[in-house]
Amino acid sequence: MKNYFSSNFRLGVLGGGQLGKMLLTETQKFDIYTVILDGAADAPCAQICNEFHQGSLMDFDTVYNFGKKVDLLTIEIEHVNIDALIKLEAEGLEIYPQPSVLKIIQHKGKQKDFFVKNNIPTSPHKRFSSLAELKKEQFNFPFVWKSAQFGYDGTGVKIVKSESDINLLADTDCIVEELIPFKNELAVIVARNKSGEIKTYPVVEMEFHPEANQVEYVICPARISEEVALKARAIALKVAESFEHIGLLAVELFQTANDEIIVNEVAPRTHNSGHYSIEASYTSQFEQHVRSILNLPLGNPESKVAGIMVNLVGEEGFSGNVVYENMAEILKMDGVTPHIYGKKETRPFRKMGHVTIVNNNLAEARKTAEKVKNTIRVISK
Amino acid sequence: MKNYFSSNFRLGVLGGGQLGKMLLTETQKFDIYTVILDGAADAPCAQICNEFHQGSLMDFDTVYNFGKKVDLLTIEIEHVNIDALIKLEAEGLEIYPQPSVLKIIQHKGKQKDFFVKNNIPTSPHKRFSSLAELKKEQFNFPFVWKSAQFGYDGTGVKIVKSESDINLLADTDCIVEELIPFKNELAVIVARNKSGEIKTYPVVEMEFHPEANQVEYVICPARISEEVALKARAIALKVAESFEHIGLLAVELFQTANDEIIVNEVAPRTHNSGHYSIEASYTSQFEQHVRSILNLPLGNPESKVAGIMVNLVGEEGFSGNVVYENMAEILKMDGVTPHIYGKKETRPFRKMGHVTIVNNNLAEARKTAEKVKNTIRVISK
Fold first, then answer.
1. Closest CA in chain B for residue A8
2. Spatial distance between the Cα atoms of A45 and A273, rounded to a whole number of angstroms
3. A350: contact with B, CB 8 A cutoff
4. Are both A58 and A170 inside the same structural domain?
5. pLDDT tops 70 at residue B152
6. Among B148, B112, B107, residue whose Cα is nearest residue B128
7. Are residues B192 and B160 part of one domain?
8. What is the tens place of the pLDDT at every residue in B107-124?
9. Shortest Cα–Cα distance, B241 to chain A (Å)
């Protein structure tokens, strides 16, 4: 094992947003010198990493030159210049997740093809390189359209219900999927290190708002049968093994009407669905990511207590300097921990933070989560 | 409530060592802008706070000028220039713990007098202003001698067994205490905010090495009867109430042969005996300190799981660039979390970090703690 702790070892991270910030908590805990690259001078990580570099993650030279300054490179966002990573890797830099894996996952068409090739259950799909090409095809409505690249938090995904909807689609490289009716949207985080050690986190469940069709709560453990949970973990594990992925992989899954598990898509990094782990798990997803990329033994992914996560997003109708209204009210509630990402300006639906609710009893945590959701407001002055 | 989160509010902290570093984890989580003053340019906090100022904590002008740059001031070490704090407070700055409380606690003679005056059980003591004055007195041996000021981690404390030992004592303001034989050394952390809300953490127990007479494990919960535990928490609460202390107060206690609880001494801050709380408690002592000084509602101090803390101190015979030998071995063990403070140089007995072991079952945690203790070594290259 290399000497990572209070040493001259330099860990590089592409991206300095909230995922990077929560990763820094872990590198600080281990005193691993961490260098961050991000496009924004006021990125959440800027003031609290050992060294901050400002520059575009999509620019070849910027990423390449940054890579030359570190001993091992990882990412907190997958939209980065992969060509620079490939060159750096060829020149001997360790990069996890591997550029070859990122290249596949970054492109939803290649990602789906990979699932099919590796017998990973997923909804049937077709790839198109332009809107014109797509228009030549006959479809059963409704279907799911996804931009092949750069989608984020639901952007770049549309449910197409009729011919007229097709004309509203962007003219871009895309995939079309069968719309699978599902009972539950689930996720499993998998960690794998260079030695091939691999561990899956418990299954989490996304609970949707009954009308708004938005995820309201991420719940761990998912309220599903043990049989379905084991199937979900086994499939997620298979996905990470197929990629020979090193680092954290978040596998988003659907539980179908007849309890089949199919893979929706994957993210090659720490993930919103794993934020509960900071308070609830023996090893948080962020510590686990550090362990996996440095080829340290993986930690216990099981939970101490049940955990529920509520995203804090900017309220509609408010833009400007953020105010977290009623913070004192939620801090009064048992087992409630707010995480504030450090973005000074709120905008409608901008992810500004999250709140974790933990309790020995999941039903109690669920009640508190609803109170939190109905109490705190992300507004502006 | 003031707007502390992602706002222009500036929290000042006197001291940038490991306690400050673990506090930063919490201020980062809440995105509270934190400014640190420390004498050492390479203090553990230097690179990871929002703003770092280098300067002596004992220098009036340095502390006063630093205080003028922040909206609220706290400490991570009690050895600071109190006169500067008194002036800042008189000029309207909020300082927690209060300078008047720090002034008493900073001086062990005043601290003991305070206990006596407030009917807080403690061992009988006498104060002396010099060694010459002490020598005039007749003593029963053995007794405990404590330097009145600036003791740290056992420095400034001596067990005096004979007349000849007296000649080895420093010529300084000091106290002499009766040596009380005790069954257990315990500690209770109390949090209190400006509104008067007060919460005690569970009692922790110091387990000593059978021969070396050094604390080996800090164990939560202490393996004592519920009756003794409740008495210890009640006495600790009374101490904090008596001081009208705002912030965290660590109360060190002895359980005597006949199960009386007496107060040994107090520390007006986060404390080594509360490090287990980061992994084991619903609210870590560092988050609780932030909540208490900002007059936020206090969090739940109870534990999710049992926790044991092992200090990582520099091994005898090694000085220089630190290496944590066998880190991979301890990371393999379940529920084990190392904290590395970020001191580049090890020296014999220097506090370099700590390891927390958590488990649902305290006996299991105790077994793992012993394995950790026997495995990891803090040495130099």
1. B344
2. 21
3. no
4. no
5. no
6. B148
7. no
8. 999 999 999 999 999 999
9. 21
